[in-house]
Amino acid sequence: MDAFYASVEQRDDPALRGRPVVVAWRGARSVVCAASYEARKFGVRSAMPAVRAERLCPQAVFVPPDFARYKAVSRQVREIFARHTDLIEPLSLDEAYLDVTQPKHDLGSATAIAEDIRAAIREETQLTASAGVAPNKFLAKIASDWNKPDGLFVLKPAMVDAFVAQLPVGRVPGVGKVMERKLAELGIATCADLRTHGADELEQRFGRWGRRLHELSLGIDERAVSSERPTLQVSAEDTFERDLLLAELEPHIRRMAEKAWAGYLREREAHPQRIARTVVLKLKTSDFRTLTRSLTPPEPPASLEEFADIACALRERVDLPSRTRYRLVGAGLAGFGDGDALAPRDLFGAYNPDSLPRSR
């Protein structure tokens, strides 16, 4: 979907059409959820601090998010997808992969299906969507962004090699600014440059992600579209009204752990065999630097108290100056796996937070 949250707001309020719309709460603690294309011309982007967005575009109209409304529209769009295939892998409220290798209706080609879906979305929701048609998920993701907004890009198999070769590495999903800089230090700016480095060399430098990068540089992506996406993490986070020191965070970490644990229990109720092994602590400094620390203990956390103790103890792994202040904290559970693979737990055992390794 194109600028989804902002587009829904512009659709529902004619006074917002053609104006720079920023979906966010106003204030120093808020971040941008979405920006209309009119706002993006001024450099406003999602996840940007709202105060910076206001500086970049003083004439922007700030609209508080209404996620219930966005979810309702998302369900409409998913229903349109389901007319063509049951192999739908949602990535978020506004994005999904569809495998149309064996569609419900023979429209002649994947391109025709994409055109039919986009037309139905426009007619039934009065919103626009962009689509990418390609042989695999990596390429379809790239293609879907190629002609935004309200566009369609078709990447046929014969085009793949030349198309991927010229891609800047920054366009590869998963390559952020830090990885882009590391690759630049090796003289790697495009996927063609990546190809000149062997998979073994890249794996030695960057672990499994290095080998994956090499595959993507060749346009290879064997991942199937999965309509049952397993939960990867259950978490909760909060932004404070004022920045706090690390030593002041414990009650807030425990509060977020309580929320995350409630979500984890709901996940376990739906999928009893899925057990989280890893505790994650997320922090954001007053200058918007994000830190994460994690630990996979010998036994998965078995109670809220155990989970919260580990999350609080993970502060020991933060090596910033003690005067550093933090604007956000989050706690989560990750590393989900099949509980049958775990060794039986000592029912009288208890986790000792003092045993947390101090190594960084």
TrEMBL record:
Binding-site positions, Mg(2+): 94
Domain of life: Bacteria
Gene Ontology annotations of biological process type: DNA repair; DNA-templated DNA replication; error-prone translesion synthesis; SOS response
Keywords, alphabetical: Cytoplasm, DNA damage, DNA repair, DNA replication, DNA-binding, DNA-directed DNA polymerase, Magnesium, Metal-binding, Mutator protein, Nucleotidyltransferase, Transferase
Classification via PROSITE patterns: UMUC
SUPFAM superfamilies to which the protein is assigned, alphabetical: DNA/RNA polymerases, Lesion bypass DNA polymerase (Y-family), little finger domain
Cofactor(s) of this protein: Mg(2+)
Quaternary organization: Monomer.
Database matches in PANTHER family: DNA POLYMERASE KAPPA, DNA REPAIR POLYMERASE UMUC / TRANSFERASE FAMILY MEMBER
Protein name as annotated: DNA polymerase IV
Organism encoding this protein: Pseudoluteimonas lycopersici
